[in-house]
Amino acid sequence: AEEAALGALASGCSFDFHKETPHLFVVGTEEGYIHKCSTAYNSQYLQSYDGHQMAVYSLKWNHLHTHVFLSASADWTVKLWDAKSPKSIMTFDLNNSVGDVAWAPYSSTVFAAVTADGKVNVFDLNENKHEPMCEQKVVRKAKLTKIAFNPKYPVILVGDDRGCVTSLKLSPNLRKTSAPYQDPDTGKTVDNKSQEVKKLDAIIEIALKSVSPEEP
């Protein structure tokens, strides 16, 4: 059993460690499967997710919401997951192989993905749950393979398969984040992270209801 599990792991092509629980990580395989694993176990998965038809090129945990991660695949899709559920919550079809995906560090609902046809797609699920807020052609004769948000400034970097890196500035409508405020009922300050978690939870709740409507 252990040899079989290790053999399955050998076909992995992406992984990401959890932001707050260092021993947890997710692995994406060439077959399209995603596995949640722990460094404490070398012969079994904690959970498996069957969501893609082709290789999973990128996996990214949300910076602010501890249960949520994204996957990007050669099957042209990006999927949003709750780590507790084996089925994806939302699917975004980008019409080409998706090389990488990244969450914005300042918002729980903003992410960006790059495709093999040279495009960058930036989403804000709080503004539009289905289509990107921005789609930009960056290169014409290369495949985009990597994307990263600057942790401090409104800038993203994208890399392609020819070794070039391009810097792009985010427009103001893609930089929105929650500001701390004082709860009038309790008098306590509600911080940015709490608001961002609540914001994404509301979006996930709506998405789940649209997939599985309640019986009348």
TrEMBL record:
Instruction: Note whether DNA-binding occurs among the keywords.
Output: no
Q: Name one GO biological process term.
A: outer dynein arm assembly
Which InterPro entries does this UniProt record tie to the protein?
Answer: Dynein_IC (IPR050687), WD40/YVTN_repeat-like_dom_sf (IPR015943), WD40_repeat_dom_sf (IPR036322), WD40_rpt (IPR001680)
Q: Where are the WD repeats?
A: 49-91
SUPFAM superfamilies associated with the record: WD40 repeat-like
In which compartments does the protein localize?
Cytoplasm, Cytoskeleton, Cilium axoneme
Q: Which UniProt keywords apply?
A: Cell projection, Cytoplasm, Cytoskeleton, Dynein, Microtubule, Motor protein, Repeat, WD repeat
| Recorded coiled-coil stretches | none
Q: Where is this region: Disordered?
A: 175-194
Q: Which GO terms describe its cellular component?
A: microtubule; outer dynein arm
Q: Where is the composition biased (Basic and acidic residues)?
A: 185-194
Say which family it is in. Answer: Belongs to the dynein intermediate chain family.
Q: Which PANTHER family match?
A: DYNEIN AXONEMAL INTERMEDIATE CHAIN 1, DYNEIN INTERMEDIATE CHAIN
Kindly provide the name given to this protein in its UniProt entry: Uncharacterized protein
Q: Which organism encodes this protein?
A: Tetraselmis chuii
